[in-house]
Amino acid sequence: MFDRSRRMLEILRTARRYGLGEIMGDAAPTWLLGKPRAFDEPLNVRLRLALEELGPVFVKFGQTLSTRRDLLPEGMAEELSKLQDEVPPFEGAEARRLIEAAYGHSLDRFFEHFETEPMAAASIAQVHAARLHAREGEETGREVVVKVLRPDVHERIGRDVAVLYRLAGLAARFHPEAKRLRPVEIVAEYDRIITDELDLMREGANASQLGRNWAGSDLIVHPEIHFDYSTETVLVMEHMQGVPIDDVDTLKAAGVDFKALAERGVEIFFKQVFRDNFFHADMHPGNIFVQTDMPHRPRYVGLDFGIVGSLTVDDQRYLAENFLAFFNQDYRKIAELHVESGWMPADTSIEEFEGAIRTVSEPIMNKPLAEISFGLFLVRLFKIARRYRYQVQPQLVLLQKTVLNVEGLGRDLYPQLDLWATAKPVLEEWMHHRASPKVAAERLKTQLPQIMDSLPRMVPTLMKRLDEGTNPAARELERALTDITAELRSARRAMRWTVVGTGLVVSAVLLVIYPPVPVWLGVVGGLAGFGCWVRASRA
Predict the structure, then answer these.
(1) Phi, psi torsion values for 134, nearest 5 degrees
(2) Residues 6 or more apart from 121 whose CB is under 8 A from it?
(3) Which of 14, 15, 492, 507 is the most exposed place for a label (fewest CB within 10 A)?
(4) Alpha-carbon distance 160 to 163, whole Å?
(5) Can you give the residue ranges of every domain in the chain?
(6) In this structure, is the dihedral angle defined by the CA atoms of residues 421, 426, 431 and 437, taken in order, positive or negative?
(7) What is the H or E stretch that residue 302 is in?
(8) Quick one: how many helices (H) and strands (E) in the chain?
(9) Of 435, 432, 424, which is closest to residue 325 (Cα–Cα)?
(10) What is the β-pairing status of strands 234-238 and 243-244?
């Protein structure tokens, strides 16, 4: 408790020093955040500097906030996107101690060699090169990378997140646009993301799933996870070789086709989202390598799987239809989809919203990435959507972030990339696949047991609710269900009489064909069968 209070005071002092009360406008409590005064730097820059000074948790929070262009003033998201998650590494001896504590044994029991000097360090964890002991049949042990959480990271992040909740509560109380901004919900979403990152077994499972999704592909590869050596605080994975994607000079020296590299990156992203519905949501240059053994068909190497995303089936379909409508410049369709999906209020004027979308879309259509900024387009689109009371979709935040990362990579690799032309075939193939009878039959086959299991419970409940209802629609529906039930009972009776009658007629025919059974017995049986058929027709 004392640590949190001290940290809160430290944050408030930093906020006063950088004049962050300006974010709150006239509603800022001067006793808490200080009186307004002049600064050399604009507010956006001061906010970034303050977050960098406050440390890794606040840096990552700022990075997450930079994706919320629907909430931030123009220019602030761009400035926050410059935040760098750069922290000095901790001692290699401490890393050994932490790993041995997680294993309960000496490192020598598991590793033939462990590199004390870290390969890289970030705010949550750092990684070391190592080599496993050779197994039976292996000449040498496998080269691996060992990722270990920072010491006391849970305590530090827990303390700072608790402080963020308190600050969000203050913002919700004093900020004039608190209802729209929903600061507590923003912190809650960040809390969920960073908590997931603290579980390295979850990251390993994410990597394993991505590897299975792309098994045998020549577009991207993922490291094998050694779960036998992994815990919540230690992750051991295959040591992947490749060139960092932002090392342009080395890629050029290797003869890499940058056009192909950029196009394959876009294809990977759209297939992850629509084919697999499981996408890497932290695709910045530090997490992507390139294998250059086939320079004209370069293959991506995915790393760092702490943040992944997926969409609901409905959001996935709506998003695909929105993309295709955008590529086809069908702005009315986009407006209709936003309202139909619930992303916009039901009373939104389709005509007005269509015109607004056209205004921000037309200037960037059919242009290479060198001539447009998708980030600027999103800023303008969100500004318009805000005017139409756009309902923020938390499940789309990670996707928005990933889209911006993909754009940035594409622009760096091949500025003339036609993003639309590359993405459109992937989307069309996915939509065609979803519409195929085979896929529809498979979905029905999967859902049928659940439907059949639920039906006996649903009907009595529905009847009870209808019986309790007093409105005309309910009574009408009740009468319809009663009629349907009567029809089903009648059909069952008719089926029973038909089966009996058919059995008697067939038996009569057999009796006549195969004597010495008396003919009259066969005739009687036949007449009885016909009688059953007549009874069935009247049921």
Answers:
(1) -65, 135
(2) 87, 88, 89, 90, 127
(3) 492
(4) 5
(5) 2-84+180-188, 87-151+199-240, 246-435, 470-538
(6) positive
(7) strand 299-302
(8) 21, 11
(9) 424
(10) unpaired
Q: DSSP string covering 320-337, please?
A: HHHHHHHHTT-HHHHHHH
- Do residues 89 and 54 touch, judged by C-beta distance below 8 A? no
List, in order, residues 6 or more apart from 245 with CB less than 8 Å away: 251, 285, 288, 289, 290, 300, 409, 413
- Report phi then psi at 300, rounded to 5: -80, 150
Euclidean distance between CA atoms 522 and 520, whole angstroms: 5
Distance CA(69)–CA(105), nearest Å, equals 48
Architecture per CATH, 87-151+199-240 = 2-Layer Sandwich (3.30)
Contact 522, 530 (CB under 8 A): no
How many degrees, rounded to 5, is the angle at CA 311 between CA 307 and CA 313?
160
CA–CA separation, 36 and 33 (whole Å): 9
Radius of gyration of the chain (CA): 32
* pTM assigned to the model: 0.70
Tokens of residue 242, six digits: 């490749």
> Which CA distances in Å does 524 have to 369, 534, 538?
87, 15, 21
d(CA 429, CA 31): 59
C-alpha to C-alpha distance for 333 and 239, rounded to whole angstroms: 47
The catalytic site residues sit at: 282
272-324 pLDDT, tens per residue? Answer: 988 899 999 888 777 899 999 999 999 999 998 988 888 888 778 877 887 77
Tokens of 506: 């067939």
Strands of 118-256, DSSP E:
120-121, 125-132, 143-149, 220-221, 234-238, 243-244
Print pLDDT tens along the chain (539 aa): 667 778 888 888 888 888 877 766 655 566 556 666 677 788 888 888 888 888 878 887 887 777 666 567 767 877 887 776 667 889 999 999 999 999 999 999 999 999 999 998 888 899 999 999 998 888 889 999 999 999 988 988 888 888 888 888 877 877 766 666 677 887 888 888 888 889 999 999 999 999 999 999 999 999 999 999 999 999 999 999 999 998 999 999 999 999 999 999 989 988 998 889 999 988 877 789 999 999 999 999 999 898 888 888 877 887 788 777 877 888 899 888 888 877 778 888 899 989 988 888 887 776 665 666 655 565 566 667 667 766 556 566 677 777 777 777 777 788 888 777 787 788 788 877 775 555 555 655 565 566 556 656 655 665 665 565 555 445 555 555 565 556 556 655 656 656 566 665 556 555 555 555 565 555 556 666 666 656 555 55
